[in-house]
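Training component of the fellowship. As part of building independent skills, the fellow (R.M.) carried out the full modelling exercise for a liganded target. The chosen ligand was adenosine-5'-diphosphate. The inputs are recorded below so that the supervisory panel can assess the work.
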Amino acid sequence: MADAEPKLTPAMQRYQEVKKQHPDAILLFRMGDFYELFYEDAQTAARVVGLTLTSRDKGSPNPIPMAGFPYHQLDNYLRKLIQAGYRASVCEQVEDPKLAKGLVKREVSRVVTPGTLTDDALLDPRESNFLATVYPEKDRVGLAWLELSTGRFVTTDIELKYLGDELARLRPAECLFPENARGSVAHQALLGMSGMMLAQRPAWCFVPDHARSILMQHFETATLEGFDLDQQSPGITAAGALLEYVCETQKTSLHHIVQLEPYRRGTNLILDEATRRSLELTRTLREGKREGSLLAVIDETVTPMGARLLNDWLSNPLTDVAAINRRLDAVGELMRDPLLCQEVRELLKQTYDLQRLTARISTGRATPRDLGCLASSLQILPKLKAKLCGRQSPLLQELEAGIELCPEIRSQIAALLVDEPPLSYQEGGVVRDGYNTELDELRDLARGGKEWIARYQAQEAARLGLPNLKVGFNRVFGYYLEVTSANADKGPPEYIRKQTLKNQERFITPELKTHEDRVLRAEQQSHSLEEDLFLKLREQIGLQGGRLRQTGDVMSQIDVLIALSVLAVSSNYCRPDVVAEIVLEIEEGRHPVLDRLQPSGQFVPNDVRLGGSNGLIQLITGPNMAGKSTYIRQVALLTIMAQMGSFVPARRAVIGVADRIFARVGASDELSKGQSTFMVEMTETARILNAATDRSVVILDEIGRGTSTYDGISLAWAVTEFIHDAIGCRTMFATHYHELTQLTNSLKNARNWNVAVREDADNVIFLHKIVEGPADKSYGIHVARLAGVPMDVVERSRAILQTLESDHFDPEGRPKFPDRPKMVRGRKRDRQLTLFAPPEHPLIETIKGINLDELTPSQALETLHRWRAELAQTQS
Ligand code: ADP
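Fellow's submitted model of the complex:
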């Protein structure tokens, strides 16, 4: 049959062409004052963002589903679509409809994706937003990431097994990967990440030479040798593929991306995803909110740039003692000068988000108001620099030196821009008078036109002797002369009648029309000249993106250092002594979150002593709700704070730098990914036992809780022995299994601690004080007695406890079960054991022991008969 589809209008034909360019993005197609969506896109948007679904060509047999919204609501709908997990391409009218001949030209101006947001309206000012790219190559993975809203571009390559950790650290909004890597181990790891959009890219984007050429083109270099990168690294390929995607979707210049930084694993404290979650570093465990996390509680920054950097420091603590001390020195110096801090903060508060402003300028999205904000921020810089002058600590000196005042940028903007610039640059009112002579003339003409009208009106009124004659304006026929109906016939011949109203008559004259033409044209010309001037300035400033970004980076660091000093003063923190040795000594340490949230003085401080003669394993026993989790979490948090360069809530702290922290606290009540709680617990335990080094800190809460008591105790027992023998790292192990206190008898580096309780006449009070020594073993029975359980029951239970204990331990408290062989890491399983496999039959041992060479046939037959008889006996 012939084509049944109705013929599409030219606009719809263009729609189809544009849609093909980015088929997987929802197309927002500008038509006049609206953005329209068609076909499936309209149906999707109706469903996910609540647009009303209508149709185009309602009368036709095949109406096209359609939905739309007014142009000024673009940000609002973009945000909703992105949050719902979609991409959107925005197609604009790229010529003035009034001037267009035929169909208005339309082009896609950008594709908005979760990882490439730059608009303030779509971003959380306090959070970084990353686009990542993963390129697996054998057992390594190239990983690159970009924060488009600031221009930070980083790459690395890592072992495949660390991919999950790195993504947990970055939390990218979107991640690209090669479509031909679908189903690979790397792909599996990506699928496991929540809250991240995955985008497949064609395999050719990841051809190393192609990716390199994209990078060289962008950085305008003939080689990539100048970047401190391993030239063969798959990280370079990942970076090239990433940049190509950004160019393709953004369709703007990317001058603000001035560098590709290498990232080296090992310069940062490694925290895997489970650890980040259980410590609630940047969001809470249950609700996933920033409020209530450590980050929210310690955030004293005053700028969004500072808030983002603080998040970055907390998510990536350092491991280099000197680098940590550099930060601590700066914080310490600032603490001694609260007045300076206050003054600098006042200045910082007056500045805008220089990093994101710069990115918007470089990508051609900045409005006149953005340039105004930039100029007013730059104006603050000389004062800021002056305040920071003469500091002692090298970091503060370096930061002061790093502030680029960029005076020429400020004066360029100040010269061009009006004092209160508008949001749009297309409707005039952007450029100040006196900046450009041609513009001044056009404006005079437009303005002067009004004076001319007044003169013309007076002149005609006098000529015709009609004092009531007026010049008016309407949209239909522009300027006109108006006289009362009674005087209508007094008009001279050049008066052309246009309209008759009840009491008035309206005329136009050739003179009036000529003038009108000039005025309107002058206005239009002045607007487009302003647009040209503005765009030129924006482009020029865009080329300076690198300097502006650097200054933004410096400001964010100053903000964070001051924030940490304000926090330390207001919350009474001490400077940790950060050292290379394997120690952890904390006197009167407090949990940073509870300490700030609870009324002052209510939180009970506690000590920690690990390393050297204090041993390496602290076993903390005590009943539920006694404060064990809080205590061990606190130790991990203090270590992280110290390694990010912050003071810590304690009276004194000596912190030996850790390479990794493993924390499994309170995670066991989560059921994740369909695995049983216990399986999750054991998987994570396995990971710790396989990955921890002697420099790590391990924080374990109630290992083995998810299974039967004996099972649980046995596992917890053996895990502790393994950590002691095979790893030898600082470990805090909280448990309510009292039996584990006996471990200190056989492990020379383990110590018992317990939670002190006080009991009055009929109550037990948890003091939350952690003290050395094992917990009272009959504690539960004790509580039962206090609660009024009959005496007979109490005494009987005491007797049972004693018997149970004597079954497992000798009178000295040594376990009756077999001695452990020295435990080592990396021993392979001897043979494949299936779970619940029956014990080996004793006959098998005998068979293995026979020397067949010495057996005569008759002896062999006889042996077989004997075995059959034995077998019959054991089975009867
Ligand atoms: P456990 O792990 O022993 O079951 P938690 O650490 O969960 O106990 O603590 C139970 C409650 O006691 C927490 O909700 C906390 O508010 C309070 N708590 C814990 N430690 C302290 C402390 N050092 N000072 C004051 N309150 C505390």
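The panel noted the following from the submitted structure. Residues 594, 603-604, 606, 622, 624-630, 768 surround adenosine-5'-diphosphate (CB under 6 Å). The chain is about 45% helix and 20% strand.
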